[in-house]
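We now fix the convention by which a protein and its fold are recorded. Think of the row as the fold of the chain written in a discrete alphabet. Here is one such record, which you should read through line by line.
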Amino acid sequence: MDMPDIPDTVLLEERAALAMNAVAGLPDEDMGGIPYFSADLLARPAVLRHGDWDWGSSHGRLLDACLLARHMTGKDTWRDVERGFRSRLTGFFGADGLSYRLARPEVGWPANANLIDQRAVLLSLTTWFVSDGDPEARRLVDRHVAALKRIAIKERDVWFYPASEYTRDGWPSPNAIALHLAPDPASFSGRLIMPLLRYHQATGNEDALELCGWFARLIVHKSGVFNEDGSFNPARAYRSGHFHTRLGTLEGLARYAAHTGDHELTAFVRRAYDWALGQATAFGWTPGDLADQRYEHESCSLVDLIGTGTTLAGSGHTAYWGVVERFLRNHLVESQLLDLSWVESAPDASGDEPGWTTHVRVGERVLGAFAGYGAPNDYVCDVELGRGHTADVQACCVGSGVRGLFWGWNSIVTAGDRVTRVNLLLTRATRQVTVLSHLPHEGRVDLDVHEDLPELRMRVPAWAGYARVRVSRETGGFEGGQAGAWAPDGYLSIPAPRKGERVTVTFPVPETTSTEVAAGREYQVRWRGDDVIGISPEGTARPMYSGRKVHPTAPRRDYELARPAKEWTW
């Protein structure tokens, strides 16, 4: 069968497939498949390193990526990789139901159940159950949730974890309990809300929902992690306002607010989210924190912004779809490593330190990875300020990057009983409609309808206006200035499209410029619609955005879009 001819524009499912090269490339055969955590690509030769995040954190993130990529692409190509992560991850569980890091006494790492790890573990096991309905996943999560509830310190008006590590002998610091200390509740508790809630929604587990309620109360009313105006508390005790953990907490709170109908909590999330957007660039670069990490961007933080944005937009605050689309089109896909011309690998393993580092095929192994610490205009963050150059790839960002692609892909089309909505103008096939985007080359979106629909709506970007929007269809077109062209939610309304019909929407795409400030430095940014087509100054190690080209009409390619027989969402 011939492959369909489609516009050669960004495909989120294809990017997920490319990222799986890095997911599959990180496991270290000398360590029984335990993945390397980080890569320094500026080193000569480049180097992959193990770290103390190798266990539940990395396995959870990377297993989650395997499952999401399988759903997005419809491919079983990486089943063996997926099985490896699943097998090792389940082996980290202790008899108490928590996931433990293995001891490395030679560097002083004791075995412990790190609270940050538990979120990644719970995330992947929940995805495993939602994806496959595997009773083994449910058994593990039920025990895990019960353990998370059991070890929480329970006061009359707050539950909390008093330290970052729980041991097989209990909490390592009884004094922390006595003093009511809760170090960085966003890191240890807040980020658990999102997977806990999704697991409750999938299974009805009441302990998971109860933990969500107590953790939401801790974050909003007791912790001081967020200031009254929504800004992040920069105190060192709160990891200096660490963006990834704060934004991941907001993602969970946004979902919990939607689930419980708590409009006050939604308003809290929006204040903090809007404040965070003010610290980021319009194309998606975020500071790592409010102190020494503010010069370096984690892809994990951008994924949290995307996830929170889709949740808020899906709850009716539809202006955030434009934010999500800018982030997807720009810094998420631009932060993916697709060019190895600047990376030098070693010809043999003579310089390796088995069990700790390797220099062999480093670039080839991490091709497709998302930036671990990046600059606004460069895959690499190599500045004299803050912490300077640290890591260019991190396993957490590899896994998170795929989740960010999934957040977007899963949100392009949302279907209800009466209305099917196209929220993001990116190419994707669903049971109801296939979206073929010609952006940024042309202001054109083709909608191929696969079922008779009562109504199809499409979000038109604010910069496109409405007067020059045109809709072409077999039953007669209409213009954006025409009465009845728009629905009450601000979407373009296409009434009663029929199976087999193609609806084409066209609109102008303006080119504009903006000045973006990141970590105190100004960048001049050229835009075409929602796409960045150039940044000045350019990067140096692996520049971002400088290779983007725009054509009068969108180039074409042969590509078979995945269309899942069964959709599942987060």
Q: What stands out?
A: Residues 56-73 form the longest helix (18 residues). The longest strand covers residues 511-518.
